[in-house]
Amino acid sequence: MSKLFRDLLDATEPTFTLSLRNLEELSGHKNVDNALAAEILQKTNAAIRGLGLDVDDTTDRELYHALEGKVRDHNVHLAKSLGTSEDAAIRDIVPKLVKAVEDSDVPRRCWVLKKSVAKEMLRKMPPKVMMKNLGYRSIESMFKNENFSEIYAGLRFSEGADWLNEYNELFQKSVTPSNFENREIEIVIMDHDKWVDMADGFVKKKLHNVTHSKEMGVIIVVPMHQTHMRGLTLKTLPLLFHYINEIRLYSAFFKLKSTAPHFGKTITDTLIADVSSGAVIAGHNIHWRVIQRYLGRHKEDRDAEAFEPHVQPEDLHWRKAEESLFKLDNELKFWQDMDYVGRIAKDGDPVAFNLFDVSFAYSNGESYQNRYFYHMRESLWNEIFIRYMGVETIRRQILLQLDNDMIKPENLV
What we know:
This protein is mainly alpha-helical. It has 20 helices and nine strands.
């Protein structure tokens, strides 16, 4: 069954199979890969039947277009349930999406940089291109008249690589744990006329219009020149929930590192390169998001207490972005627990059942040949490690971080 994983992940052999065997031997958990592979096959067949197709006779291309059709129908239904429509203007749809997220019960507390500290750093390094584009000669005047969250998020659009690199050096040298505080995640819709030209390159590169600042706890909906976009609701709404998870994920990680040396460097390196510094298990770097995802499934108090006082139980509460959507529209449950599911196509690449992959491809008008499967692969990698890991291993590895800063590989139990 490891062949299924190898093909879905395009993994290198014999390294991949040896890694699975190593995980199995160290954990003592037998046949995890077989059980997960059987589950994926079962979910694939059930979803194909749910699309009204025949499991044996459906071609890969037919499956891909059927999944796109399901996203199209769900997008229409969800937009209507939120008080808008599929063919409404972007400016009209986006506020509805933001309100739906803000009205949801998703936890939004985070531990992030104080705005006063961020302002002080910008006083030392004024973003001159932004100030010119917005019509300001004085940074104090810009602070007074503009939404600071917009300003901070807009730095990546306006100032260029050299300025950002210099700012990262300042950030690294300046920030300490005392510069952080607990507050609510903000969702900001950028002013269209002020930012649309500055943000144009970002939108064209990312093929979507949502970004976030992990260190500030801000999610930004970026303006676009185009007035309409098909599939916008199911493209944007999951991203908003996803970025809430991302900010809280890194917030917990920053807390975790708050007692370790070189705090500023750790935070800066994480923001720039997203280093996989959660743990090392069986020779593999395990990202903190995998650890948090595992603990989010096992919310027993005895597990969460292991990380206090650095990380509190509420910091570890985690929910898939899709789960939040199901509360808004029950029809979307077709995508439930399908994030790591895919079917190998005859051309070698998988057809993903991951909502992000399908909704992005539909919205971007991608062909079958250019279909997306990145999110499915990431989810499957995470799922494999999660199934092998145990709570005691997670606790032990993270406590080692608190004491040593560097991770020491340990055997699974």
